[in-house]
Design goal:
The chain is built from 3 helices and 9 strands; from the N terminus they run αβββββαββββα. The chain has 221 residues and is α+β, with helices and mostly antiparallel strands. It folds into 2 domains: 72 residues; 140 residues, Protein Transport Mog1p, Chain A, CATH 3.40.1000. The chain is elongated. A 7-stranded antiparallel sheet has the order 3-4-5-9-8-7-6. A two-stranded antiparallel ribbon has the order 1-2. Strand 6 and strand 7 form a beta hairpin.
Length: 221
């Protein structure tokens, strides 16, 4: 019995010693890692600060450039159309060039306008992506919308201008057949016996289209 108790005591002592060694090694490893990390930060803190400052300066420059580009667009120009075509009125950035035909000589278009920053390319270029197009067509709204029903690639939803909430039209997005090969967003609205089309080609000017053009667009239905 005495020998058995001694063997148990020895085993317990060995286990305790192994555990102590494991804890000691773990503490040494953790201490070494902590010391290495502290030394790395101490030795490279200046470099880390410089990298952070440079990144902040780059982001600040990007933000300032974007804000400057927006500031250059103001004050906006205002276009006021003739009363016989619904007194169409809208604002557009002063950095955009414009060509506006109100002679009614463009086929069914009573008013046909083109906008592009900073220089307007040829309006006869069927492949050009314009920042803004505005047309008043002599065709009735129902006829224009009916023509769109065959274009399954287009996505449409009901739409009202913020300044003319009583007049319900439609907004379509996708491949616009008015400009072959182009993809954009168009708003179509009934204008008495006529139809108003407002659109932008591509995606480059969709932000201005929504925040400047559509938000300031009005007419007398």
């Amino acid at each position: 019995m005495i020998k058995h108790n001694q063997d148990g005591a020895v085993n317990s002592l060995v286990i305790s010693l192994v555990l102590a060694i494991i804890l000691l090694v773990s503490a040494a490893v953790f201490g070494g890692w902590a010391f290495s990390s502290r030394q790395d930060y101490k030795n490279n803190v200046d470099g880390k600060i410089k990298v952070a400052v440079a990144a902040a300066q780059v982001q600040s420059a990007i933000t300032e450039k974007a804000q400057l580009a927006q500031d250059e667009k103001q004050p906006y120009y205002t276009y006021q159309g003739p009363p016989q075509y619904g007194s169409v009125s809208f604002q557009y950035p002063r950095t955009w060039s414009a060509y506006i035909n109100v002679s009614g000589s463009s086929g069914s278009a009573l008013l046909d306008s083109y906008f592009m920053p900073p220089i307007l390319s040829s309006v006869s270029d069927q492949t050009a992506n314009f920042a803004l197009r505005v047309r008043v067509l002599s065709q009735p709204y129902s006829q224009i919308v009916q023509q769109l029903q065959g274009q399954k690639a287009l996505i449409s939803r009901a739409y009202t201008l913020p300044l003319v909430p009583s007049n319900v039209g439609v907004e379509v997005s996708g491949p616009l057949q008015v400009a072959p090969g182009s993809t954009g967003v168009m708003v179509i609205l009934p204008d008495r016996t006529n139809t108003i089309e407002i659109w932008t080609d591509g995606t480059a000017y969709q932000s201005d289209f929504n925040s400047i053009i559509l938000s300031h667009f009005s007419f007398s239905p």
